[in-house]
Predict the 3D structure of the following.
Amino acid sequence: MSRLWEQLQLFGFNQYEAKAYTALIGLGASNAYQISKESGIPRARIYDTMETLVQRGLALLEETGDGAKIYSPLPVEVFLEQARRTFEDSWQKVGDELRTLEKREAKTEVSLTTVRGEENVLSFCRIMIRRAREQVLLSMWGPMYDKLLPELAEQQKKGCRIKGILFDVEQPLEGLYKHRINEYINKMTEERWFVLSVDGKELLYGHSAERKGNAYYTDDPVHIFLLEDYIWHDILVNRLVEAGSQEQLDRWILPEMEHFFGRKMLPESYWVDREGK
């Protein structure tokens, strides 16, 4: 029940009002003493709490001939319909006001914003994909791609180009390239990153959403150029490897990568296993 009370507070209830309304829903027509007992609200506070609910139209008050006060709840379906309309109206008005503020003056500086949490990262991605007009570029692992697939497919139906490279995805959308299977990418590394670029104007990149790390949003042209170029080069390398001998090229590429970065990026067991084959 405590979870329901918390949710009701999002609709403008305080804690006592949420407890009183849910108690009244369960009891039906009741007096203040019964509501106080059922809800756990102190008797000293029950009358002012019920008065507030009556004023808000969430409870109906009837006074009997002997002066007793009987409260009845606003029916649940009526409450839900009112709450929905109020929310939608507020959502529209707040959105209009915020968009007006956003357009008042042209931006003079690029932004870099941290986005935290799996649901926030996924929501940010969905919003970006939905407002794409021409092209979405991405580099992404399977679990995150699966959650964004409905939005990507919908945009592709509208004529938006979907391009990029995917890891551990068997049947990607047209325009998306499957990263080749090699032991380093698919077994040896625990890192999971993603890049999402929309129309060359905005970019989100960072830990894959399911890793619950941070992601970073920016409209900086330098970030966008570098990470879009990264996606293209990853696709290019995969195509070159597939055009040649993957086994031979991997044996050359992986040591060269370690040499370039100046650090061991693969465990010794990897090379021992390779020599044993």
